[in-house]
Amino acid sequence: MNYRVLAGTGVQVSPICFGTMSFGGDADEEMSAAMFRQCREAGINFFDCANVYSNGMAEQILGKLSADCRDELVITSKVCMPIGEGPNTRGLSRRFILLNIEQSLKRLGTDRLDIYFVHHYDPLTPMDETLKVLDDLVRQGKILYPAVSNWSAWQTAKALGISDRNRLARFVCLQPMYSLAKRQAEVELLPLAESEQLGVISYSPLGGGLLTGKYTASSKPDSGRLLDNKMYTRRYAASIYYDVAEKFSAYAKEQGKHPATLAVAWVKSHPAITAPIIGARNLEQLEPSLAALEMDLTDGQREEITSLSIDPPPATDRAEER
Q1: Which helix (H) or strand (E) holds 280?
Q2: Which of 90, 189, 211, 247 could cysteine-pair with 263, CB 3.0–4.6 Å?
Q3: Over the stretch 49-59, which tens digit does the pLDDT of each residue have?
Q4: How far is residue 316 from each of residues 170, 185, 193, 312, 320, measured CA to CA in Å?
Q5: Which DSSP category does 230 fall into?
Q6: Which one of 3.20.20.100, 3.10.310.30, 3.40.50.300, 3.40.50.2300 gives the CATH number of domain 4-175?
């Protein structure tokens, strides 16, 4: 296993991170344990979680599974998304973060989180308040590194500036969506990460299943996340995504590779990516994604695969001067 350094920290992590969103939901405890063992046997030491996954069950299951190897692992969790119906059951206020870090630590059975993500942007809470409470948690040893998921580049850059100006613990890692179908992160987020020495663990490398070979412009399976989950249906509603999926599946077949393996390997090959996050409901789904650990694309292969999708628009309208 060639471990990668999480930029700016010195912490070494596996080049693939396992996401535990299925724990306690699509995967029961027995299957969750089987997938955890499979990942550990493959050398993965990086596990991503969140307080809202399966209403806290994912953290509980991960806590049980990691109890005898906790110090060998880099474990993340997140805060911001709703955990109830009341007005103060979401967000990035000091009150909500302090409540949720204690609950996450208890469920995970640990005294600290290696990486703690703000899960989404909270327009109601001043950034200064959020960044100050994260710094307090670092000083208390309850989190080692703060991080950010699903923020725009300008929001992230503003936060880094506030942290630097006030000598607060700064974000060390980004968690954006990134796949061959969804390449918006290439425009500003990934360049920001490279410029500011931030790690990146991106999610949805398979496009919610779009890039697994099951979907084409003219055919779809009878069921699947893209069909059964309204959020994913909306996310990949445009026909262009299915055109990309069809071309990509044909390319994978020509190369004699499983589409899922190739899709994860493509994300892993971007120089700004520390580790793509893979997920699965069972061992059968896990196997091809996990196989990307052993696949390193050449520059030529990456260019060939990239050409199958649409380049995202540039950050400015002066594209003719590039």
Answers
A1: none
A2: 211
A3: 999 999 999 99
A4: 27, 15, 19, 11, 10
A5: H
A6: 3.20.20.100
